[in-house]
Amino acid sequence: MTHRRIVIGDVHGHYDGLMRLLEAIAPSDEDSVYFLGDLIDRGTQSAQVVKFVKQSSYHCLLGNHEQMLIDVLGDGEVYGPALQGWLYSGGHATVNSYGEAGIPQGDIDWMRSLPTHLDLGDIWLVHAGVHPQIPLEKQSAEEFCWIREEFHSIAKPYFPDKLIITGHTITFTLPGVTPGKLAQGNGWLDIDTGAYHQKSGWLTGLDITNNLVYQVNVLRGRVRKLSLSEAVTRIDPSQVGRMRRHMLRP
């Protein structure tokens, strides 16, 4: 059997949906599975998601929601403005998922250890994207975990020989993309199809090796398998600036 490379978009606390997605993908011990970050927040099962991924052999990147948690709890301190921002962005659901015992320091330390990006040769994985005007070695988690418009509007690929695969920005907030579709721009592919969002509900896994897309709708229970060509919409980067009126919370 061919060794597959599988990339999974923003889970956002949907453990049951993730289990259904992995059941559909059926990764073998020889396959490599990569999570693009944002395992937590918004959904009600963040603690279960973190426990599962942490104990697995799968790879995971740092997302902006893990970064927000670290900023609030990483040093054992609770900071007012940062705390309010995190709770507003779905952090309360993560806190509730851990119950009275609270979030263990081991989980916080694990999140802090997550890389911001992974280079797979022909594929470059990152949660949000890269800043086209800043040399790669000078970029930080701020760019890798948070960037949106500057990245999606690039006129030419950032890497001449690598496809950047991201999550972070729900695809239907990009021009011309309908709920559940992946979004493709110049040298990048966004697979965050908005598992937590009432307008979508789709959690996506991408089999890079075979150009297959697996999706589970966490709201409606549907499961589907599509070719990448069926699942993707190519956007016009010149129209990206107009998406601001559709911008969601972090």
TrEMBL record:
Residues forming coiled coils: none
InterPro entries membership: Ap4A_hydrolase, Calcineurin-like_PHP, Metallo-depent_PP-like, Ser/Thr-sp_prot-phosphatase
Protein name from the UniProt record: Serine/threonine protein phosphatase
Biological source species: Funiculus sociatus GB2-A5
Family matches, as Gene3D superfamilies: 3.60.21.10
Domain Calcineurin-like phosphoesterase, chain residue ranges per copy: 6-169
Name of a matching Pfam family: Metallophos
